[in-house]
Amino acid sequence: MKLLLKLLAFVSVTLWILSCDSNEPQTNSTLSLNVEDVSCTEVWLQLKTTNLSLPNNITLFVNDLEYKNYVINNADTLLYIDSLLPNKNYTFKTISYYNPEDGVNSNKVNTTTLDTTSHNFTWQSFEFGQHSSSELSDISIIDENNIWTVGRTYMNDSLGNPDLISYNAIHWNGSDWKTKKINVLFRGNTITPPLEGVFTFSNTNIWFVGSLPINGDGINWTIYDLRTTVDPNLSLSKVWSLNSNNIYFFGRNGNIARYTSGNWQKIVSGTELYLSDMTGNNKGEIYVIGNKSSLGQGVVLQSSNGVHFSTMTESANIPESQIFKPKLFGSLTSVWVDQSNTIYTAGDLFYRNKFDKWDYVKSFPGNYYGGNQNAATYGYFTGISGNASNDMWIVGERNTVRHFNGVTWQQIGLPYDRMSDIIWLDLDVKDNLVAISGTKGNKAFIMIIKR
Questions:
Q1: What are the residue ranges of CATH 2.60.40.10 in the chain?
Q2: What are the residues whose beta carbons fall under 8 Å from the beta carbon of 131, sequence distance 6 or more?
Q3: pLDDT value for 282
Q4: DSSP state of 375
Q5: Average pLDDT estimate for 300-309
Q6: CATH 2.60.40.10: does it fit domain 29-112?
Q7: 3-state class of 6 per DSSP?
Q8: Which residues sit opposite 394 in a β-bridge?
Q9: CA 92 to CA 90: how far, in whole Å?
Q10: Class assignment of domain 122-450?
Q11: Which of 44, 129, 198, 395 is disulfide-compatible with 37, CB 3.0–4.6 A?
């Protein structure tokens, strides 16, 4: 009897020791799966583990079919799935296998990929300029009957002689374009300043930038001489805002000025590069692009409060082996944020930042280091905008005008031509209306696109 009790005690202890073996699954191990984002062809899943030995083998199932095996090293892992179909329902789950006989299942999550948008557009183009070299550097849509664009347009006077003072704005009234001379009273003199930037809130609240901010109602205009009130060295060229009480003006030498409810302040950008574009997201974060294109340099600045800016990433003329470690290649001119707060920037190449990781926009043909030899596919990029990740536009030199419907990029308007003298400098997108401004040879050039 004593021998039997000792034998039972030995077996019990042995089983207890075996139950503590770290190679065996813990009964309270869990896998939690959540959909973080979705596009027309991609899904990002967040996998969180609890009490799971790491590293571990994970199998992902898509619509109950085995899709891919992963080795995870962290309790929180982002899984990326591509090559999906638009507007299709998908179910995802993961299983962690300790051994062939046992495993831990995650919850199932369902999502529907985004549908594509239409490439079916109509378009009109317009040329302006009768002498010298004209171009339009910025454009802003109020509605389909009210569009403003700025730059320099040289016309003849009433006698047919060259007018040496350029028209600095052109306005679309729904049926035709009217060249304008925006005159302002500056230090006791009436001047027609060169305009580089425009941003519109309504037909009676329009902002221009001609080294200094100008505001007006379409008829009367006021220039704000910030060199006497804020900083004597301010030189601004662009304007951006999410609302009329928080407006940013930016430009040369890293200059930024901010207008908030009637008050002006200088914002320190932290760079002396030329600031060419700005955008923001629905969380109040702001992104600014700086560049020196002659040296192939650029910078992406970011701010979480609209006041303090820091460097998010830089770009330079670097070898292919150094790209994304951490710099981007080439100069940068434009920036845009989509509905999921994905950041896009472009210049020599086209990039996106998703979940704090930079990469090429791989859907765009030839968009990688060495992939656009002799400008065979696209010209230097100058502007990005859109309504969503499946309704995006990018424009640039050599008549680059491409629309992304969520799956494919299509040239809109005249065909792309690497020998084209059309240089698009800016665009604005509002729902099914797109307006683009630039230059064609020595003419100012505009295109209106409608879906």
A1: 29-112
A2: 154, 155, 156, 162
A3: 86
A4: G
A5: 96
A6: yes
A7: helix
A8: 384, 402
A9: 7
A10: mainly beta
A11: 44
